[in-house]
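Standup, Tuesday
Yesterday: got the pipeline producing structure tokens again.
Today: sanity-check two examples.
Blockers: none.

Example 1:
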Amino acid sequence: MPPRDPEAGTNGTNGTNGVNGHSDEHTPLLGSAVRSDDGFVKRHAKEGWNATMSVLTSNYVNVFLFFVPLGIIAGILEWKPLTVFTLNFLAIIPLAALLSYATEEISLYVGQTLGGLLNATFGNAVELIVSIVALQKNEIRIVQASMLGSILSNILLVLGCCFLFGGMKYKEQTFNSTVASTMSSLMAVAAGSLIIPAALYNSFNNNFDPIKNPDQYQHHTDSILLLSRGASIVLLILYVLYLFFQLKTHTELFSDEHAEEEEPETPTLSVMGASMVLVIVTFMVAVCAEYLVDSIDSIVATTNISKTFIGLILLPIVGNAAEHVTAVVVATKNKMDLAIGVAIGSSLQIAILVTPFLVILGWIMGREMSLFFQTFETTVFFVSVLITNYLIQDGKSNYLEGAMLLGIYTIIALSFYVYPDNEQVKGPGFPL
């Protein structure tokens, strides 16, 4: 994006604005006019006020922001679990919209490629924080469910909504096929990293009873852990190489092909202002998500909803609300490269960065966190990646493809709804 002319300016769309503090006078709709003859303190106070009003009026769902303090107070005072869950669920909605707004502001400075990467990173902060807390408590099942659910939510639900709502506005949308091909290949590698430990475990334990042979079972478990930790190191190296490939050596392949066809948009916030919003909102999302997760056990005990369904379906939807809002908004603006970068990029980060990182962290903490998932979950992941890769490899999308992704996600959600909580789970991190 070429630098903006600081002398140009009409109505706050170019040049002067109260956020960046150029020399001309600017009067925002709900802000205060910033004049060149204002004193230092007064000028920066007006700029801060204008920036705050720009953030608060950026989306109509921001009227739900009052649920944020209510949700936090409910968690601190230990109100009824259902009340805590509902308030914090509603609180995350406007916070996700603010995260979407701030990320789009930054993407106007750094471009869609890095903007999508930033949004995926901030969007995964919730899952990472919750997983580290669960890992410390040796809740391996919760960690794995959160990781798998987040991946499925992004590549099926979020991407499906992008294709569907974007396809309702445009007959056909295009995106960078090279980016799609690279991401789909890496997702296939991630799927393989889960299939191989599951296949090896089933091969080990096909012809013996682990209850009668605990020593042999422990030997097999140690082998799976060794494989998982080695594979995690390889995946982390691949992620670093992917970043180097994307941001350094092959940046031209990831450039926005349609950038020259569109009128350049002018950011409302400065880079520093948008970055502060990202950090503050991400922290608030993490706080609300923590109280929301803490209320799950009580909800499971008082309702017919299983912990498996909550962990794999409901929580990822809440945790990925930021990516969901951002991706759908930019898709309806025909910015499919950014939408793909947010949706699939977030799944990619979970699969080859966050999950391997948690395996290594568990190794350091003495927890048996591994890449071994149950057979049913591994199959679901493989099918989801396969379908997604087929739909994005041509670099084109329409509403029917979006409906396909949402359809398979609904089927998977139903399967997890009937998946029993008392299913016997075996493997590293799960006692016999």
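Example 2:
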Amino acid sequence: MYPVYEISKEQAQRIIQIEENFLNDVKAKEIKPAKLSETVSAFSNAGGGDIFIGISETGDKKVRSWSGFSDVEEANDFSQTLFSAHPFGNHLIFEFLKCSGYDGYILHITVKKVKEIVKSTKGEIFIRINAGKAKLDTNEKIKRLELDKGIYTFEDEWVNVNIDRIENSISIINFLINVVPNAESLTYLNNQEIIRDEQSKVVGVLLFCDEPVIYLPKRCSVKIMRYKTKDDDIGREYLDGVPLTVEGDAYNLIYDSVSKTKELIEGIKKLGAVGLEEISYPDVTLHEIITNAVLHRDYSITADIQVRIFDNRIEIESPGRLPGHVTEHNILDTQSARNPNLVRLINKFPNPPNQDVGEGLNTAFSAMEALRLKPPIIKEKESSVLVVIPHESLASPEELVIEFLESHNEITNKIARDITGIKSENTMKNVFLRLKERGVIEPIPERKGAASAWRKITI
């Protein structure tokens, strides 16, 4: 028996009017369980989502209404059919919702993203796209899904190489210093099944070739760009100088990319309470997020990792979606390595970049909080993962305005937006009005229109 929850009329209306999108769907109770299994497959093979069954749509305009099951037993076929399609059952949570004044029970199914592929009752594979679903009907499409989920990992693919470039590389010499027991490079590489004849696995090229770009072009570089703007909508006119490309084996790629990123950040100034201040991001945050991008990117995608440095944030974008069951919401609480051999072997280097395996992102978030900065934002895009590291204080806008006025005679809307990170003039004006209501600040009478400003009230 699944739980039954009483909800308010306001909550019921929110469910009735919910927007169907990548994460939400509504269905009438008349839908066939086998047909519903296609939607469940699509959600579970993408980012997960919520399905509400018992919402009818009528007329050309598809007006929605609550039309639930007469009792919870009426929905038994759904759970039985869906579990028979995927016997693990680890991807589904069922609950019923009822509301006074509305007829019947709504079945709410939470579909979780899982590492394994979820099929429909017919054995077909679907994936969620926007507010609909698409069937994966070719081997190429299914292979792409396996790569996205981390079922199949590109790091195990074989690449034709000059074995000498791996066997006698600076990287393998540095690596073997730390390996117990000691071994000759060729012996170690063979024992680990990384090389054969004149071939190496991708992981071997990434770790032990001093110039992996020779064999894996556009897959093992980090491109660093500096944009002199705070805007989201950027163009080449904001690009400062020529983008910097960092290359090398995975170990040096991480450390060199962090170093170059820090160098570019050092020249950025930000308006603070006492004037222009140097921007400072925690070293550990930059290190952990760039490490994560290099170790967990999808190497089957021909694209560089991008580090974009703005006046008020850093964006780090790595190719590939989040692997396995990892989502934007559970990424700090769970683990799923897309490239497990890369993660394992790089940890054997002296001073490994992933010193605290599995704790990197948590460490990055904690470091931001320690500096009283807002936490990083993780966004899963269509074929990449974007991490935004904002340089915005955890202090409220009101606190920042008051702090600024401790050492300045006045503050304008523009200056206030600069120090708070607020983009809207009207939103900033509302902050001023709240402080005015508390008797903290007042408008300067002679300053009108675009020149208007505020000052502290002195008693």
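Quick observation on example 2: The two ends are 66 Å apart (CA to CA). DSSP finds 15 helices and 23 strands in the chain.
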